C-alpha cells in the first residue's frame, strides 16, 4: 500500500502540480497528435520539435528571457519555416517527403545547436542537456503564481493556457479539420482550404511543441504526440472515441509517470513516456481493433469480426 | 543455474577481452594525430553513411536512420553502465543490438497494426530514447560521457573508434558490392524480390543491421540527431543528380566525405562548434546548391523548361489561330492581317505586333511592316498544320473512342495538341482509320504528305485535301 501513496506523501502538493503539468503537456499533444497519425504525418511532429530550436535560440538571444512570449513566436515561425522547406523540397524535386523532412529538420536543428554553442555559452538556462531530456520536475523551482489561494508554479499556468488555446482552436475548426484529414478533395469542394488547414495545424503544432519543449525536451515530445493517438488508434475506428481515448491515455500516463518517478527517482519526462509506452503495449495486446489477442482469436474463428469497424 | 550464467558471462567477458587486445593491436596502426584521425573518420563515415543513405532514400524510409539512431541510446547507456572500463567494443555491440531491436519493432508495428511507417518510426524513436533517458538519469555518474553521443564530438574519437569505423565501412562496402542487385530489388519492390526467390526477410534484416552499425559508429562524431543528416542529405543530393543507382552511390559517398571533411576542419579551427552541426550544415549546403542547379532535377532547369514550354505553346497557339483565319477564308489568301489576328486573340494591336515579331524571330512567319500582315513560312505552315491536326485528331479520338460529348472535347485537345508526338499521332490515325474530318466537320490537315512548297494557294488546298487535285 505504501508504494501507492508514496508520491503523494513524499512530494505533497508538488505531486499534484507535477501530474497536472505532465497532463497539460500531454493533453494538447495527444489531440494534435491523433490528427497527425491519421494524416500520416507523425514525423512532421519530429521535424518541428527539432527545428523550433533555432527559433527559440534566436528569440532568446534577443530577449535574454526564457519565459518571454517571443520564444513561442520564434518557435512558431521556425516550425512554419520547416514545413515550408519540406514542401519546397518535395514538391519542387523528386526527393520524397520523408527524405525532405530529414533534410529540413536536421539542417535547422544543426543551425540551432551551432547558435547555442556560439552565443548561448554564458547563458546557462538554455543548455544542450535540457534540449534533449527536458526537465519536467524543474517547474517546482520557478516562482509561483497565486491562484485562488494556491501557489501554482508559473510554467503550469502557461502550459494550461496553451492547452486551452489548442483545444479551443481544434474544437472550433473540428469539422474542417476532420474533413480535410480524411478527404482533402471533398473539403476543397466545400470551399475549405486544405492547404490553409495544413499550415494552420503546423502552426498550432509548433506552439504546442515549443511549450512542451522546455518541460519534456525535443525528442520526448514526439512520444507525447504519437503515443496517445497510436494507443487510441489501436482501440477504435471512431474519431470522437479516438480523441477521448487519447486524452485518457495522456492523463493515465501522467499519473503513472509520476509513480515511476517517485519509485525509481528518475527523469520525470522519460517516466511519463515509458508509462505511455506500457499502455501502448497493453493496447497492442488487448486493444479491440489492433489487439493481437483478438486477431489471434479471430484467426482461430472463435470470435466474430465486429461489424462496427467502419468509421 | 546462477553459476552457469555467471560462467557464461565470464566467458563472454573473456572473449571480449581477447578481441579487445587483438583489436587494440590493430588500432595501433590507425593514425594517432588529431588531424589524421579526423580526416580518416570523416572519409569512413561519409562513405558508409553515404552508401546506406542511398538505400533508405529510395526505400522512402529516410527517417529509419533517425529512429535507429535514437533507439541506440539504451544500448549506449547499458554499455557505459556495465562496462566499467568503457570498452568501446562492448558499447558498440550493445548499442547495435539496441538499434537493431528498434528497427525490428518498427517492422513489427507496421506488420501487426494499422499504424503506418511514420507513426511506427515515431513510437520507436521516442520510446527507446525515453528508456535511455530514464536509465541514464538513474546512473548519472557512470554515464557522464553520454552527451558526446548525443551531440557528437570528433575530437573524442580514439584509435579504437577508428578501427571500428574502418571495419564497419569495409563490411558495408563489401556487402553492398556483393549484394547490390538483391538489395536494390528489395528496396524498390519487395513483392517482385519475393517472386524472384530472394530471401527478403534476411536481406531486410541484413540491411537494418548494417544501418545500425553505421549509425552507432557515426554517433560519436555527429551525434544522435544529426546522424540522419549524414544518411539522408548526401543521398538526396545524389538523387537530384542522377537517375542510376551506381552513380548515385558514388555521388552520395562523395558528398558525405566532403561534408565530413568540412565539418572536421571547421570544428577543429573553431573549438566551440560541434562537428555534427557543421557536417549537417555542409551537407545541407550541397543539397541547397544542387536543389537549384542540378542539371535535370534542379529547380532552375525545371523553371527554364517550363518557361520554354510555355513560350513554345504560345507560338503554336499563334500559328493555329493564323491557320484557322486562313481556313475560314478557304485559303483564298496567303497572309493574315494583324487586325484580324488581334481580333481573334482578343488583344490589342501592340500585343499582336509583339507576337508577330516573335513568330518572325523563330522563322515561322514573315511580318511585313507596311501591310501590317503576317505570312507563314514553310516551317510555320507545317507546324500550324501539325497542331491543328493534333487538335482535331484528339477531338475525334475522344468522341469516337472515349465516348466524350462533342462539345466537351475542345479544352482537352487544347492542352494535348502541343505534346502529341509523331508516334502517337500515327497510332491515332491508324486507330481512327485515317479520318478526314473532325467531329465538328472540319477537315484534318495532312502535313506529312509530300507537298512541294510552290504556289501558296495551290499548296494550301493540296495540303488540306491532297486527293482533290
TrEMBL record, chain A:
Primary localization: membrane
Key words, A-Z: Cell membrane, Membrane, Transmembrane, Transmembrane helix, Transport
Repeat in keyword set: no
GO biological process, one term: transmembrane transport
Subcellular localization(s) per the UniProt record: Cell membrane
Membrane topology: Multi-pass membrane protein
The UniProt record lists the keyword Transmembrane helix: yes
Ranges that cross the membrane: 6-29, 41-62, 68-87, 99-119, 156-178, 241-262, 268-289
Domain of life: Bacteria
PANTHER family assigned: ABC-TRANSPORTER METAL-BINDING PROTEIN, METAL TRANSPORT SYSTEM MEMBRANE PROTEIN CT_070-RELATED
Family from the record: Belongs to the ABC-3 integral membrane protein family.
Protein's recorded name: Metal ABC transporter permease
Organism, scientific name: Persicirhabdus sediminis
Amino acid at each position: 500500500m505504501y508504494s501507492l501513496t508514496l508520491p503523494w506523501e513524499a512530494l505533497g502538493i508538488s505531486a499534484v502540480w507535477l501530474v497536472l503539468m505532465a497532463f497539460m503537456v500531454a493533453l494538447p499533444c495527444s489531440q494534435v497528435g491523433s490528427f497527425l497519425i491519421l494524416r500520416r504525418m507523425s514525423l512532421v511532429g519530429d521535424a518541428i520539435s527539432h527545428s523550433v530550436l533555432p527559433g527559440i535560440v534566436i528569440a532568446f538571444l534577443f530577449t535574454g528571457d526564457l519565459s518571454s512570449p517571443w520564444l513561442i513566436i520564434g518557435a512558431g515561425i521556425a516550425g512554419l519555416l520547416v514545413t515550408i522547406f519540406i514542401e519546397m523540397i518535395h514538391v519542387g524535386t523528386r526527393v520524397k517527403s520523408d527524405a525532405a523532412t530529414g533534410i529540413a529538420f536536421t539542417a535547422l536543428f544543426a543551425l540551432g545547436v551551432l547558435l547555442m554553442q556560439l552565443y548561448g555559452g554564458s547563458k546557462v538556462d538554455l543548455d544542450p542537456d535540457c534540449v534533449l531530456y527536458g526537465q519536467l520536475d524543474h517547474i517546482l523551482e520557478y516562482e509561483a503564481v497565486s491562484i485562488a489561494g494556491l501557489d501554482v508554479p508559473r510554467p503550469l499556468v502557461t502550459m494550461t493556457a496553451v492547452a486551452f488555446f489548442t483545444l479551443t482552436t481544434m474544437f472550433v475548426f473540428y469539422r474542417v479539420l476532420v474533413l480535410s484529414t480524411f478527404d482533402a478533395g471533398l473539403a476543397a469542394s466545400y470551399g475549405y482550404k486544405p492547404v490553409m488547414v495544413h499550415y494552420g495545424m503546423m502552426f498550432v503544432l509548433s506552439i504546442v511543441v515549443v511549450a512542451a519543449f522546455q518541460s519534456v525536451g525535443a525528442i520526448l515530445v514526439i512520444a507525447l504526440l504519437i503515443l496517445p493517438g497510436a494507443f487510441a488508434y489501436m482501440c477504435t475506428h471512431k474519431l470522437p472515441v479516438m480523441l477521448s481515448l487519447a486524452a485518457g491515455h495522456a492523463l493515465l500516463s501522467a499519473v503513472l509517470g509520476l509513480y515511476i518517478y517517485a519509485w525509481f527517482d528518475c527523469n520525470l519526462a522519460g517516466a511519463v513516456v515509458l508509462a505511455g509506452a506500457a499502455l501502448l503495449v497493453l493496447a497492442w495486446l488487448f486493444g479491440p481493433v489492433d489487439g493481437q489477442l483478438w486477431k489471434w482469436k479471430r484467426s482461430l474463428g472463435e470470435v466474430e469480426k465486429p461489424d462496427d469497424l467502419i468509421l | 543455474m546462477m553459476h552457469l550464467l555467471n560462467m557464461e558471462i565470464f566467458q563472454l567477458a573473456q572473449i571480449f577481452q581477447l578481441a579487445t587486445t587483438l583489436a587494440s593491436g590493430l588500432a595501433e596502426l590507425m593514425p594517432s594525430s588529431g588531424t589524421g584521425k579526423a580526416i580518416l573518420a570523416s572519409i569512413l563515415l561519409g562513405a558508409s553513411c553515404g552508401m546506406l543513405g542511398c538505400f533508405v532514400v529510395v526505400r522512402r524510409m529516410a527517417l529509419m536512420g533517425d529512429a535507429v539512431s535514437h533507439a541506440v541510446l539504451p544500448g549506449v547507456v547499458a554499455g557505459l553502465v556495465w562496462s566499467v572500463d568503457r570498452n568501446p567494443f562492448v558499447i558498440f555491440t550493445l548499442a547495435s543490438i539496441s538499434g537493431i531491436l528498434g528497427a525490428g519493432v518498427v517492422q513489427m508495428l507496421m506488420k501487426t497494426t494499422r499504424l503506418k511507417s511514420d507513426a511506427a518510426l515515431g513510437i520507436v524513436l521516442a520510446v527507446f530514447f525515453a528508456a535511455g533517458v530514464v536509465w541514464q538519469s538513474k546512473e548519472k555518474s557512470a554515464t557522464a560521457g553520454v552527451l558526446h553521443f548525443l551531440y557528437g564530438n570528433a575530437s573524442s574519437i580514439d584509435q579504437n573508434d577508428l578501427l571500428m569505423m574502418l571495419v564497419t565501412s569495409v563490411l558495408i562496402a563489401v556487402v553492398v558490392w556483393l549484394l547490390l542487385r538483391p538489395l536494390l530489388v528489395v528496396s524498390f519492390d519487395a513483392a517482385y524480390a519475393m517472386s524472384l526467390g530472394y530471401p527478403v526477410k534476411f536481406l531486410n534484416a541484413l540491411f537494418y543491421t548494417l544501418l545500425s552499425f553505421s549509425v552507432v559508429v557515426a554517433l560519436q562524431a555527429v551525434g544522435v540527431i544529426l546522424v540522419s543528416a549524414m544518411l539522408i542529405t548526401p543521398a538526396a543530393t545524389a538523387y537530384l543528380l542522377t537517375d542510376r543507382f551506381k552513380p548515385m552511390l558514388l555521388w552520395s559517398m562523395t558528398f558525405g566525405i566532403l561534408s565530413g571533411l568540412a565539418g572536421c576542419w571547421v570544428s577543429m579551427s573553431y573549438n566551440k562548434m560541434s562537428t555534427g552541426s557543421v557536417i549537417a550544415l555542409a551537407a545541407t549546403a550541397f543539397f541547397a546548391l544542387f536543389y537549384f542547379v542540378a542539371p535535370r532535377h534542379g529547380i532552375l532547369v525545371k523553371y527554364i523548361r517550363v518557361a520554354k514550354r510555355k513560350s513554345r505553346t504560345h507560338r503554336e497557339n499563334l500559328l493555329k489561330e493564323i491557320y484557322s483565319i486562313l481556313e475560314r477564308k478557304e485559303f483564298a489568301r496567303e497572309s493574315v492581317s494583324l487586325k484580324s489576328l488581334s481580333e481573334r486573340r482578343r488583344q490589342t494591336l501592340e500585343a499582336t505586333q509583339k507576337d508577330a515579331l516573335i513568330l518572325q524571330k523563330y522563322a515561322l512567319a514573315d511580318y511585313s511592316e507596311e501591310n501590317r500582315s503576317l505570312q507563314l513560312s514553310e516551317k510555320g505552315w507545317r507546324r500550324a498544320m501539325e497542331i491543328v491536326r493534333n487538335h482535331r485528331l484528339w477531338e475525334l479520338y475522344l468522341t469516337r473512342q472515349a465516348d466524350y460529348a462533342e462539345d466537351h472535347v475542345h479544352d482537352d485537345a487544347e492542352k494535348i495538341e502541343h505534346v502529341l508526338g509523331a508516334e502517337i499521332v500515327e497510332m491515332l490515325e491508324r486507330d481512327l482509320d485515317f479520318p478526314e474530318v473532325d467531329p465538328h466537320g472540319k477537315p484534318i490537315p495532312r502535313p506529312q504528305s509530300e507537298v512541294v512548297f510552290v504556289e501558296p494557294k495551290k499548296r494550301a488546298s493540296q495540303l488540306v485535301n491532297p486527293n482533290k487535285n
